[in-house]
Amino acid sequence: MLKAIKALKPFKSLYLDNTASYNAFNQYHYNLWESSSVYPSKWLRPILALANYFMTDEEKPHFIAMDAETQVEHILPQTPKRGSQWNADFDKEKREKWVNHIANLTLLKRKKNAQALNMDFDEKRKIYGGKDPSKVISCYDITKELYSNYKKWDERSLQKRHDFLYEIITPILHIDRARRGI
């Protein structure tokens, strides 16, 4: 075991040197936390699934398949219906800033995503939390958390969720320490 760990040290050093020279940590940080357009990235679903795994208190969390059934849900819809609360709460500029931001994205199964579509947050919240008997509860903790922690969805909520996800994801990937050279 000790030999295996010693053998990995040169690879770790090479990895950190290469990521530093390619500025990978800064690119990761920008793309995930500062960019207003993290969606549609190939790595988005795995990052959200990773956050979901670390939110659960189960010893053996359920495996999340990266298939067509696991979809990325926009809480603030990409195209809100005319006359919806979304249009009252988010002008065009605010919508463009937040709609594809990681704080506005979560995981849903295809069927639930089709139910939620462009609904107002009150209706989506019922789907996320399973409080409407005609709807199906989400199986993802990262989505059920929206029901538990948010009564409305506005810029303050988005910033709060950004901070929440940052606190979960960044330590797992050890990116923040690597960016600072720790």
Automatic annotation (TrEMBL):
It comes from the Bacteria. GO terms for molecular function: endonuclease activity. Residues 64-167 form the GmrSD restriction endonucleases C-terminal domain. InterPro entries: GmrSD_C (IPR011089). Keywords: Endonuclease, Hydrolase, Nuclease. This is HNH endonuclease. It comes from Helicobacter pylori.
